[in-house]
Amino acid sequence: SVRRGGENRRGAARGGVSMSKRFQQGVDPDAASIFNRGEELQRLDSQRQTVNIVIIVLAIAGMVLGILENELLWHNRNIPVLSFQLIKLLNSVLTIVLFYYVLRYYSIEFELLEVSGKTVMGAPYLQAFVLSGLLWPFITEACIILVHPLPFVNYIVHIWGLDTYCAYSSDAFVSVFMLLRLYYYTPRIIAEVSGLKNEKTRLIGLMNNVDLSYHFILKAMLRDSLLTLLFLFVVSVITMSYAMIVFERPVGPDTNLDLFENSVWLIIITMTTVGYGDTYPKTPSGRYVAIFAALLAVVLVALAVGAVTDRLTLTRDESKVLEFIDNIRNKQERKVAAARMLQNGWRAYVKEREMYEKKHGFPPPEQDRPQNRILNQPRYYKAALDYAQMRGESVNGISTDVALTVTENAVSIKRINSNLEDLDKKLAEMHNMIKTAVLGGASTKSTRW
User: Fold this and answer.
1) Using CA atoms, how far apart are residues 376 and 352, in angstroms rounded to an integer?
2) Are 34 and 91 in contact (CB under 8 A)?
3) Residue 45 burial (CB count, 10 A)
4) Fewer Cβ in 10 A, N or C end of the chain?
5) DSSP secondary structure string, 236-303?
6) Do 84 and 73 meet the contact criterion of CB atoms below 8 Å apart?
7) Per residue in 233-246, pLDDT tens?
8) In angstroms, rounded to a whole number, what is the distance separating the alpha carbons of residues 236 and 287?
9) What is the largest CA-CA distance in the chain?
């Protein structure tokens, strides 16, 4: 702490010199301080991003080594050999390096909070770290990454249930637990790929009192990107399929879930709530995995429905365009229906006239014109009914007749100009009345006086 205090004092001295120089050169010290703060945030965020990528790579590499060692141990009938111990030793080394980078990551996060002014000033380092809210995330991440198959440690776990007896190696349970690393670091992977976690977005969040955490970025990406949802679904299927294999294959020939493709089939059928029943888990641990898959599917299906609904919802401009297109289509259909009605009406008129002349030998009189009887013709009646129905179902939307629109606008402008002229006349009349009243009253008073 003494060394750190000395460094802080030396840094303050250097900062004071630079600030005085900038002040002498005409630069505002507050502006220079803000500029240095922005540079510091950018430098720390660059370090945080690099350390975060290293953590993700080491965590996934350790998980792959744990799964590899477990598979080799299973195919060797749970008999450990020296090569398996070397793999576990390498995994332990990776875990130690990973834990170091996790410590480095939270140290950088704390420095970012310090520069942003979101820590308790004047408190000891450990107390300030606890009050910053980083302690419990650090403990959670440490518990997840420190679980790995230990070298020269292997024992058999016996489980009875559902009229079955299963013997698992301890490394089998450890390898399944290591799959939690993939779930835990998925939000970080999505955040780093999306580019939403940097110093600029952090400053925007600070100005709006919004914490741009990994869960916030995951929520935003799930809302805006279907690929993110698909990635989560694939990760869930792969991890739970492997867990199903590990827990079901000790049953022996009584199960067909010792194959990866069958486990994938079962997990997908379970998550989509289909459930054919041709394949099902027979061990308690396997059924726990199926229950977890069913519960997780509820969340993923709800997210998928919401995302698809948002994609299919039309904006206001899109709705207006579709309404415009429908109006054009309806107008054309109304024109065709009107032409058909006129055509059938004329044919009915000619037919009635010819029938009257053929029967009486002369044209019909004025009071007995054929147009009075064409409504009795079925074709004309049907065409008129169709046209009337189309006019009644037409949508009052955007006008599709350019000439009609121009005429309506011209009439509206003319009406507005006429109203303005009337308003000017009324204002002039009121002004003259007020002027006459004021001047007349003044002259009367002066004369009387």
Assistant:
1) 10
2) no
3) 20
4) C
5) HHHHHHHHHHHHHGGG-TT-STTSHHHHHHHHHHHHTT---SSS---SHHHHHHHHHHHHHHHHHHHH
6) yes
7) 999 999 999 999 99
8) 16
9) 131
- How far apart CA 271 and CA 299 sit, in angstroms, is 10
Please name the residues in contact with 398: beta carbons below 8 A apart, sequence gap of 6 or more. Answer: 320, 323, 324, 327
- Distances from the Cα of 399 to the Cαs of 282, 336, 406, in angstroms? 67, 18, 10
Say how far apart CA 280 and CA 256 lie, in whole Å: 9
Instruction: Write the single-letter amino acid at 149.
Output: P
Question: In the prediction, which pLDDT does 444 show?
Answer: 40
Compute how many other C-beta atoms are within 10 angstroms of the C-beta atom of residue 432. Answer: 10
pLDDT (mean) for 174-186 = 93
> What confidence tens digit (pLDDT) does each residue in 37-73 have?
778 888 888 899 999 999 999 999 999 999 999 999 9
Helix/strand/coil percent split, the chain, to 5: 80, 5, 20
Q: Is the dihedral of CA 159, 165, 169, 173 positive or negative?
A: negative
Measured between alpha carbons, how far is 20 from 399 in angstroms, rounded to an integer?
69
Taking the C-alpha atoms of residue 128 and residue 115, their distance in angstroms, rounded to an integer, is 13
The residues near 242 (Cβ < 8 Å, ≥ 6 apart) are 67, 176, 179, 260, 263
Helix (H, G, I), strand (E, B) or coil at 234: helix
In the block, residue with structure tokens 């009075």: 372
Tens digit of each residue's pLDDT (9 = 90 or more) over 204-214 = 777 777 777 78
| pTM, two decimal places | 0.65
Residue written as token pair 């939270």: 106
Amino acid at 238: I
What's the chain's length in residues?
449
Tokens linked to 68: 């590899």
Contact yes or no for 106/136 (Cβ under 8 A): no
Half-sphere exposure of 257 (CA within 13 A, CB side): 30
Query: First and final CA of the chain: distance in angstroms?
Result: 98
* Parallel/antiparallel/unpaired status of strands 164-169 and 156-161: antiparallel
- Identity of the residue numbered 180: L
b/e string for 263-290 if b means 16 or more Cβ within 10 A? bbbbbbbbbeeeeeeebbbbbebbbebb
Q: Where would I find the H helices in 180-252?
A: 180-194, 199-207, 214-224, 226-248
What is d(CA 73, CA 412) in angstroms, rounded to the nearest whole number?
Answer: 87
